[in-house]
Specification:
With 386 residues, the chain is α/β, with parallel strands linked by helices. Helix content is 36%, strand content 14%. Helix 3 packs parallel to helix 4 (106-115), helix 5 (150-164) runs parallel beside helix 6 and helix 7 packs across helix 12. The two termini are 18 Å apart.
Length: 386
Amino acid sequence: MSPNAGKTGMKINKLHELKIGDLKARIPVIQGGMGVGISLAGLAAAVANEGGIGVIAAAGIGMTESDFFSNYLGSNVRAIKKEIRKAREHSKGILGVNIMVALSNYADMVKTSVAEGIDIIFSGGGLPLDLPQFMNGNVKTKLVPIVSSGRAARIICKRWSERHGRLPDAVVVEGPMAGGHLGFKPEELDDAGHTLEKLVPEVISEITPFAEEHGVKIPVIAAGGVYTGRDISRFLKLGASGVQMGTRFVTTEECDASREIKQAYLDSRQEDIVVIKSPVGMPGRAIRNQFLDDVQEGKRKPYKCPYHCIRTCDYEESPYCIFFALINAQRGKLKHGFAFAGANAYRATEIITVHELMTSLVREYEEAGAEEKEYEEAGVEEKSTP
């Protein structure tokens, strides 16, 4: 913190809570849902205990079940029940699940999560146009779509309002710096018109008329490339009510990823963070390794597809099975898989606890606020910080 802040009696900006319906998160940070097996009960509970929102990723969650390959649907339903209950045993905080629309068992995973009383369902990887139809009268679970444009947010609000008589409880807008599968065309990833700084106000503008018409508040959550408390400050000033962070939580002690994945983050350089063509038909951001180099060179990784887990996957023509690759990575077998990661993954330098991370984010946010106040009083513009 600037030494001048305390001397002048300056009031330091405090992080406000994030309100999603009747839920209140003391720290406006949502831990992004990361499959396969990266964010499970361990990480989600730790984040929730620190005042944020912890999220379990549904994709491939049945990988630990003995009958995963012979009973795909049953193992996944059983596993998501176990993880939600395990997280509940270790936390009284706010817990969510992330369920990709593209999952072939999407409806079953949503229904199971609702039946388990999960606080929030985050849903992206396609437009969750009919997500409310699976609620079966439930009013406790909040529904939060993940979008990559204002247009997508408007389409969802219109559809939900007309067909289901409700609106999203919040909207996550994910920019092109996110890790994993991305909701952009490859040529849009470096387009100045698609930055998160542009998308946040765009989404707010598109959903505000719906919120005003129905007399509700729809908080917008900024995601994709948010890495520090200073970033949080920047996006809150743009109108966001909170942020979602995934990459930053991978290198925590409580993260459910293998040590090998965490080490891959620590060892990565900026040039190692690459965009790949995923078998599921979307671009994805990952850490380059020999497995991905082999795929890039046209080498096929032999496999059999025991289930069509992602509806958009061209599994008959794909050079590898992305689920097997991600399962191998989660188990530490990076020779036979790879790690998804956000654009800032190379900035990781150590493995810390979730408590240490959340504490540092709050401190960085307060420092950014104090510095901004100093610049305002001095009549100069705030420093530009990468």
